[in-house]
Automatic annotation (TrEMBL):
Protein name: Uncharacterized protein
Source organism, top-level taxon: Bacteria
Organism: Flavimaribacter sediminis
Compositional bias of kind Gly residues: 16-28
Region feature Disordered, mapped onto this chain: 1-70, 238-257
Length: 294
């Protein structure tokens, strides 16, 4: 029996002796004798696969790394590339920068039109929107050159006109040696005379006003157009026709009457014209009445 008791100590031993719960020499609580679970130790449960790296929705496969750190590194590298590209594109500070083309690099056939864009109000409005939307100068100019080249190939552009050159072609021979200011006045007088002739045809010859205005709009910006008006005026007024000389026969009275009529029909013979000469007009009118007999 003694041996049996020694082998199996009593469940309730005196305090301080072995075997009692909570005693220094007692056995551990069977309920607490189990090892900590895998979850409490921070490890995955036995048999569960390791957690997958985070994969943001829509991210290209080429951006994924071996783990989350690798993915972030690749994304940071791509972001730096985008930032470097945007820095190289250099957005302008003002809309005027869009019209500063390198004309030498533009196609020769559209250089005159491209050179005038700086003063083109339509292009100015487009440039303002481009600046607002963050369009780089290079992109805007590339689009413009492509558009103008295509329009030129399609025949949408009129022949380019150099106003200074056209004016020089209208300089009368009689003013060739005059100072520049007087030359400009002579050219302006010639242009005004052609415009007045069209207005006279509207007033006295039944030309539709809209037709006359259209003709001036389409023709008066070139020297050739102005010479056309002068040819028409010569035909109408008879100033370009050879007149019979005394002794050569023909009805000299009728010829003189036509001459006087043509002189009186000239724009400067009209009372409202800025070069109207009352004395000359009265003299021609008096002679005309004498020839006609009124």
């Amino acid at each position: 029996m003694r041996h049996l008791i020694e082998r199996y100590p009593p469940a309730f031993a005196p305090e301080g002796e072995g075997g009692a719960p909570g005693g220094d020499g007692g056995q551990a609580d069977p309920g607490n004798s189990q090892p900590e679970s895998n979850e409490a130790a921070g490890a995955s449960p036995a048999g569960d696969p390791p957690a997958e790296p985070y994969r943001p929705d829509g991210l290209p496969e080429t951006m994924y790394g071996d783990n989350d750190h690798g993915t972030i590194d690749k994304m940071a590298e791509a972001l730096k590339g985008y930032r470097d590209r945007d820095a190289q594109r250099q957005l302008p500070e003002t809309a005027e920068a869009y019209s500063q083309f390198d004309l030498e690099s533009a196609p020769e056939e559209i250089r005159p039109m491209i050179g005038e864009l700086a003063s083109d109000p339509l292009f100015g409005k487009v440039s303002a929107i481009a600046l607002e939307r963050g369009v780089p100068v290079g992109d805007m100019q590339a689009i413009t050159l492509s558009l103008y080249s295509a329009a030129h190939e399609a025949g949408l552009f009129e022949q380019h006109i150099d106003p200074a050159q056209e004016r020089s072609l209208l300089l009368p021979d009689s003013a060739a040696t005059l100072p520049k200011e007087q030359q400009d006045q002579a050219i302006d007088q010639r242009l005004q005379a052609n415009s007045d002739f069209v207005d006279l045809m509207v007033q006295n010859a039944g030309l539709d006003k809209a037709v006359g205005e259209h003709a001036k709009l389409m023709l008066m910006d070139t020297a050739a157009g102005n010479r056309f008006f002068e040819w028409i005026a010569g035909q109408v007024q008879g100033t370009d026709r050879a007149q019979p000389q005394p002794g050569q026969g023909g009805n000299t009275g009728a010829s003189r009457r036509e001459q006087l009529r043509a002189e009186l029909a000239k724009p400067e013979m009209q009372p409202g014209h800025r070069m109207f000469d009352r004395a000359k007009y009265d003299a021609l009118e008096s002679e005309y009445r004498t020839v006609v007999g009124n």
